[in-house]
Amino acid sequence: MTYKIVFSDIDGTFLTPAQTVSERTKACIARHADTPFILVSGRMPTSIRTIRRKAGLRAPLIAYSGALALDDGGAVLFDKPMTLATAVSLREKIRSGFPEIVSYTFSNDDWITDVDDGTAALYLEKETTAKRPLVGQPEQVLKPTDPVHKILCAGEPETIDALENGLKSEFPQCTIFKSQARYLEIMAGGASKSSAAAALCELYGVDRGDVVAFGDNFNDVDLLRFAGTGVAMGNAPDAVKAAADLIAPSNAEDGLATVLDSLLQGK
Questions:
Q1: Active-site positions?
Q2: What is the Cα–Cα distance from 22 to 24, expressed in whole angstroms?
Q3: Alpha-carbon distance 177 to 175, whole Å?
Q4: Phi/psi of residue 68, nearest 5 degrees
Q5: In the predicted model, what is the mean pLDDT of residues 56-75?
Q6: Do 226 and 195 have their domain in common?
Q7: How many domains does the chain have?
Q8: What global pTM score does this model have?
Q9: Distance, CA of 180 to CA of 217 (rounded, Å)
């Protein structure tokens, strides 16, 4: 089978557990440089650009779990934001019903938080981008016409489960899912990794049957199902593996490079 495009999640998939791009992965990408390799993540664009540069990639990127796709020069290829008014309503519901939840709001390359705390989500973005968040309320920081690409909620798993159930019933127009047990992501309806991937496939003139995608967590499931060949990492939860066509070794074992070389070697 001939694969014409590769989509890959970042954390838990493309990166090692130490949050680095392995030399074997870099070499694999270089060997198959004629096949577009597109990073897909819940991270913000600046963060993805940094990782893309370290990997030696020149290709579009998909940020905010599919709410925004940009070409190599930063031009918008796909944009599915929610309005600021919807984001404010969501945050009011979160604050009133779940005051223990910490939430972050993302708009293009800006990120806004109630408090600049030490949670893992903030730490990863700070380490990768060398940027600090804007502290305040989105309605105070953003203009009414500014897009909101994602709200990320962090808390204990049981609280995140309750929040997810409550928000899904009250905001059916939004895409809401857990990216990890402690993280809940909220985007506009129609924003997903698979919808952004479909837009880029149309741009490249590629049929979904010629797509291979890699992922390791719940927000990758739609992408794995969209691809002609969906590959779950060995470190993925069983429910994610069940959505895949193939299972790769873990990200600690260069699973992506192992499977990608196998799939593309006959190209």
A1: 9
A2: 5
A3: 7
A4: -150, 130
A5: 96
A6: yes
A7: 2
A8: 0.91
A9: 7
